[in-house]
Automatic annotation (TrEMBL):
It comes from Dermatophagoides farinae. This is THO complex subunit 2. Keywords: Nucleus. Residues 20-394, 406-533 form the THO complex subunit 2 N-terminal domain. GO terms for cellular component: THO complex part of transcription export complex. Component of the THO subcomplex, which is composed of THOC1, THOC2, THOC3, THOC5, THOC6 and THOC7. The THO subcomplex interacts with DDX39B to form the THO-DDX39B complex which multimerizes into a 28-subunit tetrameric assembly. Component of the transcription/export (TREX) complex at least composed of ALYREF/THOC4, DDX39B, SARNP/CIP29, CHTOP and the THO subcomplex; in the complex interacts with THOC1, THOC3, THOC5, THOC7 and DDX39B. TREX seems to have a dynamic structure involving ATP-dependent remodeling. Interacts with POLDIP3 and ZC3H11A. Residues 1163-1180, 1215-1244, 1265-1277, 1284-1298 have a biased composition (Low complexity).
């Protein structure tokens, strides 16, 4: 024995549990086995081994050898005595034994055996008996009854021989004739004076023993006593006898079978018998409530188990107690079990409904009986509807059943008979996965055949039984796929409704325990998840196992963690690869539920930015959907519904989905090289226009496209985004302006991204079929032109190409360039002419007069791809690929075959890029030829050029330049293209002057992204302007003789601006930009400061270029950095970044004398006195101006650099210094004014500055070739070279009819009688749409100038004659609206009284005249 014991480990542990079990199972010596069990039990008493581990070990040992139960009971008896002795020394040892005894009761040793061996005090402590005193009293009574009580019988003087003969007759072998037996029994009753009730009782006893003769006995009983009352009373007496705890006899199972047969044959009534069955309903309800309370306390039990060192979650088995559950004398459950075995479902259902919900079915015996019944009933139906391949379906065996009825044959019987049975299971169907599989396949086939007939019944079935049962099945992924094959037949909204009910807090005890265990497990996993590959793999498998059965609250917790800790997104997404299809669908439901949670704020508490949890959730959503096969319709419809409700924050989800699944990025911070690449072909855009290399997006892109098309969401989403973009400002009353701008930008970015995805992914047929017409988009959906044509361009381009190819194919044999040009022009006409007609109702009457509809269509339908070929981008990408080829050839690690394959791929890309560049070049040539033919129809000669330019900016340039970065460059390129094309009646100077007018209003109304785009547009325009400014040769070639640079519009001999005058105009534009930026930087408004800094950053390569302007801006930057460092850190960062870049370019700044020709001192000295007098007169008239001058005098460290300046409301004026003709019109007026440009810090005093500035002014007035905006008359020959920057409209004086050669009438003298009707129409059409932009801009600018006199214009001089002319003009134009530097109508061109923001001065005067 010593040798045998030495082979067993000294102490029972989890690690050696299996070894000890094998050791004990292999022992044949009873004494050694008893000694081994005793040592194990003693370890439990001493606390060396936990009771749970010991009980589970003994349970496994008993499975191998049932004789161990008796040995174990002996050992427990000995341990009881020893623990009582040891308990006097250490009470913990006695408590350890009692805990072990509690767990051993009815698990490894039956309670009756314990009651037989142990004393009552021990049994009471271990809760084996409820009351020690009552048990002792019962034992005494039982002994008294057995040994001392006298047996009494035959009280009715019955003869025992009669009962003997009765037993002999009823228990004879084989079948018997019920009629014969009845006669025999009657004769025995009469002969031996037997009690009929006792006879009936004996018949029932014999029936219990011979159930196989059920038919004979049932007929006998029916003929013997057809009184249900008598039978009920006898059966009630029987059940009462077995219910008596004193006799200790268990209910025979045959009794339940007999009662079930009697009830099935309507020989008894359940209502009469049910009250005599035990336990009572109140006791059953108490048991049920105790189970619920125990389940709610299950977390404490788990914590206690896991608190033991070495304990793991795998040691917890929530099904162990349920599996060991037995009926144990519950007569009601035994009755139900017998009925189910018999197949009497209606009566069994009636009994189950009298008990608490799922109480009866929670017992394994009853659940198994019902499962067998369903298996039998659905056998043939399943074989026919399993949808398995014929090879497998032939192997299906029909289950046997001892039932008296046939299986069902069709779905109607399935609905009426089987579905109630399945609903009775509740969550306990988990015990039979095979039955669940069969049911899922049958239901799926029925739904596919006739969806609407079984739809709601199956939804109820899923809700009540299948999904709750699925929560209790341990990691069955195959069954999960079967469930998904059924669930996917339902629309997403019905699936999500089922998931929502599935996620509700459970009320069933077993489900409560399962949820508690799962939550404990997932918390454990989430605490240990990391980016390590091995950790992700292990965590992913654990998450997959848990999600197979309980995905709802599992994903709810995981998403909560992701929203709090965004660094979990990557590891969690990688660990989801083991999920089932149902789990992925539930994950999407949980995401939507988290997004629509009303308790979570979508913006931060200060309301200026989007909440981090929403950003994290969007990022996770995009990554997960890209990587895994997740159904998309539900999420896409959610975004659409949110847009309908006016909520655009959830567009983050769509943005991330499109970006991750298609590779289309929305980054606004693109480099110039990337934007240039976007103007090329599709391959160039892919290779050079994205930040990251796009891989593995083909399948995901196809998935997204199919989801959109199948659910008809492709175009509705696009239109909803466009409509929401226009409504954001008006629907966000209490939202911070900063957040409104972000929402607008987000909506715009997502719209562009989504639109690009549709145009790239959808076939042109799908695109055209789903996109409404141009007229519908503009008039019915109320979309703006920028969005409308953004959506229409892919279709227009394809239509033109298709028609062009058809026309070329018709003209066989003629492939010359001229033929191609003609075909392309004809194709464009065929496609665009209907659009021209459809766009006219959308344009206002005045806009349609000033702006040609064909020109409008041409502008909005063209792209950068149509205007230029990005040769540098093509060359750059080819060079990159050549470098990759060189690196590939130098690589020695790569396999030769793989290297050759990669090299061939790169070479093919180079070839494709070359061919693509050639195709684009041919396309651009055809477009240019088409536009060359169209240009003569774009601008009418009899329409005011100011109005045309204003409408062009308002309805074309400004909206599109702010749409995207590529559109910003397109607008600049289009303006340059109009100039290079020598477009008739288009003035490049007027257009540029309007663009560089007061940009503060446009800039202040931009969002952050729009400011970036607007800055790119201005920068691209400045590139063109400064290239002409830099080199006179370039100017002479590209500008000198072009119609866009005409200053005197005469048919015979138009006058063009000269180079030096153009340089002065450039100086004016730079000054206007500086003035606008200073106005915004000094405003204190967050949006104005931010946008001005953004635009300044974009303009940095070309503005500022003059020292004085740069210093003025730099001072404002320092002020912003000082004031906003703590208050608004984001502005501080922007200002600091731009300030650093500005300082790095300090060496490139030039003085103004190098930028344009400075005025001579002589002219300044000759006119210093007159200028001084004019200043004094103006000081008396304008108090505000005097205050500004007094402030200027007080600034000892500053100097106002006075140069040529230009009236803010005369932004359309341009000049030409080479004009030798003097003005013959007596009505032409000129006025002199000057500008005070931004301050520059110098050490000169204000007196010195004043004398020098007056000297310069005198000299500038004497020099007639200088550039200025002037209103003085030019009647003398000395002023023949003077040309003021006034664009004079065609008008004649009402007092005299002009001659043909004298039709150069100044704009200030337009005859009201000729142009009155035109002005009224213009006012009516523009007052509503432009009054806000124009008037607010002027007023705000003037107020800002009053608030900032240091950067304002100095007080202008004013002559008496000018005052009279001004007052006259006021009377003539009292209905006119204020002027603007961006948009201006002809009636806004009247000269008004100058204020300090209107002052401008220069000595060079240029006029632009219109002549016939």
């Amino acid at each position: 024995m010593v040798t045998t014991m030495s082979t067993m480990p000294a102490l029972l542990k989890k690690d050696n549990k299996t070894e000890i079990i094998k050791h004990c199972s292999s022992l044949n010596d009873v004494d050694v086995l008893r000694q081994t069990i005793y040592h194990l039990g003693l370890q439990v008493v001493h606390g060396e081994v936990i009771a749970d581990l010991a009980v589970s070990t003994f349970y496994e040992i008993i499975k191998s050898n049932e004789q161990i139960t008796s040995i174990l009971s002996d050992v427990i008896t000995i341990l009881d005595i020893e623990s009582q002795v040891l308990g006097q020394i250490d009470s913990n040892k006695r408590e350890n034994f009692i805990e072990f005894l509690k767990l051993a009761n009815n698990n490894i040793v039956s309670d009756w055996l314990l009651k037989e061996r142990l004393d009552y005090s021990t049994l009471a402590d271990a809760k084996v008996i409820n009351n020690e005193k009552a048990a002792s009293t019962k034992f005494i009574k039982l002994k008294t009854k057995l040994y001392y009580k006298q047996q009494k019988f035959n009280l009715f003087r019955e003869e025992s021989e009669g009962y003997s003969k009765l037993f002999t007759e009823l228990c004879q072998d084989g079948q018997f004739d019920p009629d014969y037996m009845l006669n025999t029994i009657k004769s025995l009753i009469g002969c031996f004076n037997l009690d009929p009730n006792r006879v009936l009782d004996i018949i029932l006893e014999c029936f219990e023993a011979r159930l196989y003769l059920r038919d004979s006995f049932l007929k006998l009983i029916k003929n013997f006593s057809n009184n249900p009352v008598t039978l009920n009373q006898i059966l009630a007496f029987k059940f009462s006898f077995y219910n008596d705890n004193d006799n200790g006899i268990e209910d025979p199972s045959a009794l339940y079978d007999v009662v079930a047969l009697l009830l099935h044959n309507n020989l008894i009534h359940i209502e009469s018998l049910y009250p005599y069955l035990s336990p009572s309903d109140s006791k059953i309800c108490e048991i049920y409530q105790n189970d619920i309370n125990e389940a709610k306390n299950f977390p404490k039990k788990i914590s206690a188990i896991l608190s033991v060192e070495g304990a793991k979650h795998e040691d917890i088995n929530i099904f162990e107690e349920v599996r060991s559950q037995h009926i144990n004398g519950n007569q009601k459950l035994g009755f139900i079990l017998a009925l189910l075995k018999l197949g009497d479902w209606p009566n069994a259902q009636r009994l189950m409904q009298m008990l608490p919900e799922y109480f009866a079915i929670s017992y394994p015996d009853i659940g198994d009986a019902l499962s067998q019944l369903i298996h039998y009933l659905i056998g043939p139906l399943y074989k026919r509807m399993s949808t398995l391949p014929s090879v497998l379906s032939t192997r299906i065996h029909l289950p046997d059943g001892n039932y008296s009825f046939e299986p069902i044959e069709n779905m109607n019987e399935f609905r009426t008979k089987i579905m109630p049975m399945i609903l009775t299971f509740g969550p306990y169907l988990y015990r039979d996965p095979m039955l669940m599989t069969k049911l899922l396949r049958i239901i799926r086939s029925a739904l596919q055949a006739n969806f609407n007939d079984f739809r709601y019944e199956i939804i109820n079935l899923l809700n009540v039984t299948i999904l709750p049962s699925f929560s209790l099945i341990e990691s069955n992924s195959a069954l999960g796929e079967e469930l998904w094959s059924l669930m996917r037949l339902f629309p997403y909204n019905e699936r999500f409704l089922l998931y929502n009910i599935w996620k509700v807090e459970p009320t069933n005890p077993l489900l409560i325990k399962m949820k508690c265990f799962t939550m404990r497990r997932i918390k454990y996993i989430m605490k240990r998840i990391s980016k390590d590959k091995d950790s992700i793999k292990q965590s992913g498998r654990s998450i997959g196992k848990l999600s197979h059965s309980n995905p709802t609250f599992l994903f709810e917790y995981m998403l909560g963690q992701i929203q709090s800790y965004d660094n979990l997104i990557g590891p969690v997404v990688d660990s989801l690869k083991y999920l089932s299809s149902v789990s992925y669908d539930v994950l999407l439901f949980c995401v939507i539920e988290a997004l629509s949670n009303p308790s979570r704020e979508h913006s931060k508490h200060e309301g200026t930015s989007i909440s981090p949890w929403l950003l994290s959730l969007a990022n996770f959503c995009g990554s997960a959907i890209k990587k895994y096969q997740i159904e998309l319709p539900g999420l896409l419809q959610f975004v659409a519904n949110q847009l309908k409700l006016g909520k655009c924050l959830d567009l983050l989800i769509l943005k991330e989905i499109v970006q991750k699944m298609t590779g289309i990025e929305t980054s606004e911070e693109m480099t110039n090289e990337q934007i240039e690449a976007l103007s090329g072909g599709e391959l160039l855009r892919t290779e050079g226009g994205s930040f990251n290399q796009i891989r593995n997006i083909k399948k995901s892109t196809l998935r997204l496209k199919e989801a959109l098309l199948e659910n008809n969401l492709a175009m509705p989403l696009c239109i909803l985004m466009a409509q929401q973009r226009n409504c954001i400002v008006f629907q966000s009353e209490n939202t911070h302006l900063k957040l409104i701008g972000k929402l607008y930008d987000q909506c715009q970015e997502t719209l562009v991204q989504y639109g690009n995805f549709l145009s790239n992914s959808l076939t042109i047929d799908d695109y055209k079929r789903r996109l409404p017409s141009l007229k519908e988009l503009l008039l019915e959906y109320h979309l703006s032109p920028d969005v409308t044509f953004f959506l229409m361009r892919p279709m227009i381009s394809h239509d033109i190409t298709s028609v062009f190819e058809e026309l070329v194919a018709q003209r066989t044999g003629e492939k010359s360039k001229q033929v191609l040009f003609e075909c392309f022009n004809q194709a464009s006409e065929m496609v665009l002419n209907p659009m021209v007609e459809s766009i006219k109702p959308a344009l206002s009457s005045q806009v349609s007069i000033d702006l040609n509809a064909r020109f409008f269509i041409s502008f909005w339908t063209l792209t950068m791809y149509d205007l230029q070929v990005p040769e540098k981008s093509y060359l750059r990408e080819r060079n990159k690929i050549n470098q990759q080829i060189q690196i590939l050839e130098d690589s020695k690690d790569m396999v030769i075959s793989k290297k050759r394959k990669e090299k061939d791929r790169l070479i093919s890309i180079i070839t494709k890029l070359t061919n693509e560049a050639q195709q684009q070049n041919e396309h651009v040539t055809k477009v240019m030829h088409r536009l060359e033919n169209e240009k003569k129809h774009w601008f009418e000669s009899n329409v005011n050029k100011i109005d045309v330019t204003t409408n062009f900016l308002q309805h074309c340039l400004i909206p599109r330049c702010k749409f995207t970065a590529l559109d910003a460059l397109y607008c600049a390129r289009f303006v340059h293209f109009l100039h290079c094309l020598k477009t008739p009646n288009f003035s490049t100077l007027i257009c540029l002057d309007r663009i560089f007018g007061d940009i503060s209003n446009t800039m202040s109304s931009c969002t952050e992204n729009e400011a970036n785009h607007y800055g790119r547009f201005l920068c691209a325009i400045l590139v063109i302007v400064m290239r002409w400014h830099k080199d006179i040769k370039v100017f002479e070639v590209e500008c000198a003789k072009y119609p866009g640079f005409v200053t005197k519009f005469c048919e015979k001999d138009p006058v063009h601006i000269d180079y030096e005058s153009y340089r002065h105009v450039c100086h004016k534009w730079h000054y206007r930009l500086t003035k606008a930026f200073i106005l915004c930087l000094d405003s204190g408004d967050y949006i104005q400061i931010r946008n001005s800094l953004i635009v300044l950053t974009k303009l940095l390569p070309h503005f500022p270029v003059m020292i004085s302007f740069a210093q003025a801006i730099e001072r404002r930057l320092e002020k912003i950095r000082t004031e906003e460092k703590e208050k608004r850190p984001d502005l501080f960062v922007l200002a600091t970044g731009y300030s650093g870049q500005l300082k790095s370019r300090k060496g490139t700044f030039i003085p103004e004398s190098e930028f344009h020709e400075k005025e001579s001192k002589k002219m300044q000295s000759s006119n210093s006195s007159s200028f001084h007098q004019q200043q004094q007169a103006q000081q008396q008239k304008d108090s505000d101006g005097s205050q500004n001058q007094s402030q200027a005098k007080s600034e000892m460290t500053t100097i106002e650099i006075k140069k040529e300046s230009y009236r803010g409301d005369d932004a359309q004026k341009l000049s030409s210094s080479n004009s030798s003709k003097s003005s013959k019109s007596s009505s032409s007026k000129t006025s002199s004014s000057r500008i005070v440009e931004p301050e520059t810090t110098m050490e000169s005093s204000s007196k010195k500055y004043k004398s020098e500035s007056m000297t310069r002014i005198k000299k500038s007035e004497e020099k007639t070739s200088s550039l200025s905006i002037s209103s003085h008359s030019a009647n003398s020959k000395d002023q023949s070279t003077v040309a003021s920057i006034k664009i004079e409209s065609r008008a004649s004086s009402a007092s005299s009819s002009p001659k043909r050669g004298d039709y150069r009438i100044n704009k200030d003298d337009i005859d009201s009688s000729i142009n009155n009707d035109y002005r009224k129409r213009k006012l009516e059409s523009t007052r509503g749409s432009t009054e806000r932009d124009l008037t607010i801009n002027d007023k705000r600018f003037k107020e800002s100038e009053m608030a900032h006199p240091a950067s304002s214009l100095s007080q202008p001089t004013r002559s008496a004659s000018h005052e009279k002319k001004s007052s006259l003009r006021k009377r003539q134009t009292k209905d006119s609206t204020p002027s603007s530097t961006i948009q201006e109508a002809p009636d806004m061109m009247k000269q008004v009284r100058k204020t300090k923001d209107d002052s401008s001065g220069s000595s060079r005067k240029v006029k632009i005249f219109f002549c016939d």
